Amino acid sequence: MISEDFTRVWTKLSREWKISLEQALAPLTEGQLNVLELLLESQPMKPSDLIQFLSTTPAAITTLLDRMERGGLIARTRDDNDRRIVWISVTEKGLSEAERGRGIRNGMIEQSLDRISSHNQQLLVYLLGKVANS
């Protein structure tokens, strides 16, 4: 029975956050923010490197990267030694949008967490960490 309650609450919370985040991020999308964050952790990357982090197909990644390049968020460059290899890196605009997106997302989560005490916030993070690592 607890699994049903958890599913109901988690689904509601996820849906509300996703809708609010997409509206606040526009024209950036949550998927684009995820890619920018991945690139900022270890750029440059090849498009194929993103597959392990994103639950999608290579064709969908190509489409996403095409939009991001048109929007000036990323740059694609050919490898100097092997022209078949394409490297992706974040542009200045992409960095600015990633920072804006992180701020929006963190603000939304902080607003939600502010409904409970600091102790319960720490407990929630601890318990979710236990669930995620099992």
TrEMBL record:
Q: Which GO terms describe its molecular function?
A: DNA binding; DNA-binding transcription factor activity
User: DNA-binding as a keyword?
Assistant: yes
Pfam families per record: MarR
Spell out the SMART domains in the cross-references. HTH_MARR
Source taxon at top rank: Bacteria
| UniProt keyword terms in alphabetical order | DNA-binding
Q: Does the keyword DNA-binding apply?
A: yes
Mention one GO biological process in which this protein takes part, according to its record. response to stress
Coiled-coil ranges per UniProt:
none
Write down the SUPFAM superfamilies for this protein, in alphabetical order.
Winged helix' DNA-binding domain (SSF46785)
> HTH marR-type domain: which residues?
1-133
Stored PANTHER family? HTH-TYPE TRANSCRIPTIONAL REPRESSOR YETL (PTHR33164:SF43), TRANSCRIPTIONAL REGULATOR, MARR FAMILY (PTHR33164)
Name of the protein described by the UniProt record: MarR family transcriptional regulator
